[in-house]
Give the backbone structure.
Amino acid sequence: MQYRIIDFHAHAFPENVEEKAVKFLKEYYCLNISRRARIEDLLQSAAQAKVEKLVLLGTATYPGQVRNVNNWIASVTDDRVIGFGTLHPDYPDIDEELDRMEALGLKGIKLHPDFQQFDIDDPRMLPIYEKVGDRFPFLIHMGDENVEYSSPRKLANVLRQFPQLRVVGAHLGGYARWDEVKAYLVGKNLYLDTSSALFRLSPEEAVRLIRAHGVDKVLFGTDYPIASHREELERFLQLELTEEEREKILFKNAYRFLYEKAA
């Protein structure tokens, strides 16, 4: 069966930094990443799995990168590529950048607390969550085996304070911290994406977590270039889900989130 697919979690980088960025990912996560991560590589991988649309994510590791990252993401968006830009807690003019992101056509905000080195519930972030409200959704990297910046417990603190936020918790809510996900995030008012989780969880564990949270609030993601689209789709299809559940996670939930602004 050929499914309609939206990849809700993908990365590519400008030509001049792509090699360095992939090298950093390899070393930080101790992964063997054999594929390149230029925009043309990402689109080729998506086409091989017949992915209709993908969400392209950018991260500024320090404040001075924010404008350039957002400019580049916007420059490669089209009818297939949905751009999520970035903010940083120390960026000097959040209001101006939010307006600029909207004018650029960006559709969301990616945060990577581990790489940007701030706690999800850092007091510096609270005025930003207040300003953004439901204007843009956030996709937040969740979970790390070595640092606490992106712990599920800290995201739960934010969701309690800002229930209007539209949030996607990456990596099924917390890479390598799925017991904490179950304790603090499962069933709460946020979406989870499947990226960089299915190779660590057993199929049975992944299905239990997905169903406990609610199939209507789960999105398919590859984390390209960490996985190719064919590879990650194959992992996903090994899960013993119903056809209706697969269709929701692969396409329908993402479409509703992106185009119908449903929480």
